[in-house]
Design brief:
Layout lengths: L7 H21 L6 H8 L3 H7 L3 H19 L1 H4 L6 H14 L18 H27 L9 H22 L3 H12 L5
Length: 195
């Protein structure tokens, strides 16, 4: 993968390409939009594209990372080492989902689309692993403050919370209302709360 641009203008151009591709790929799938579609949507040309990317697959990698960054931006509780409130994280997730119009998860939407692309599949798995680890860290902080059962294993709890989020988000998308996501997260969190 090429190094990130050194200039602000270069970073803006690259970000425009990735942002346009992310929107198109989220809507039409990773393989859906053509390079011409991406260039038209980003207002850039082929020479600019090849200045920042060696291939379309490299662009898809950048899109996966971009989508992961979008997820983490909406879940500030996961990035704050002093944060230990699972309820606040839950509220951030529900708010982000509501703001998206109950769309599919920005990263989860690509699950199943990378089965024939082992490198992209590996990147997607690694990004979900980072998300799960961030949730495990949040659980560990909450456990240290007595907000989570002392016997709760942070790694298992992180996986439980991510599974509840992904399943709930998919059902909320299907029904176009947050109920499934809210109940899924509430049930998962309730299982971790000390009695």
């Amino acid at each position: 993968m090429k190094a990130l641009p050194a200039t602000e203008r270069g970073r803006r151009t690259r970000a425009a390409i990735v942002g346009a591709a992310a929107g198109l790929m989220r809507q039409h799938g990773l393989a859906g939009p053509s390079l011409d579609d991406v260039l038209a949507a980003s207002g850039t040309g082929k020479s600019q594209f090849y200045h920042y990317f060696d291939s379309r697959r490299e662009l898809a990698e950048a899109v996966l990372h971009h989508q992961f960054d979008r997820v983490m931006e909406t879940q500030s509780a996961l990035r704050d080492p002093d944060h230990a409130d699972l309820g606040a994280w839950r509220d951030q997730v529900v708010a982000a989902h509501r703001e998206s119009g109950y769309g599919m998860c920005p990263l989860g939407v690509f699950a199943g689309q990378v089965d024939d692309e082992p490198e992209l599949g590996g990147i997607l798995a690694e990004l979900f692993g980072r998300w799960e680890a961030s949730l495990a860290d949040l659980v560990a902080r909450a456990r240290a403050e007595g907000r989570v059962r002392a016997d709760a294993e942070p790694e298992d709890a992180g996986r439980l919370l991510l599974a509840a989020l992904q399943g709930g988000a998919m059902l909320a998308h299907v029904h176009r209302r947050p109920t499934a996501l809210e109940r899924s997260l509430d049930t998962a969190i309730a299982a971790l709360i000390p009695r």
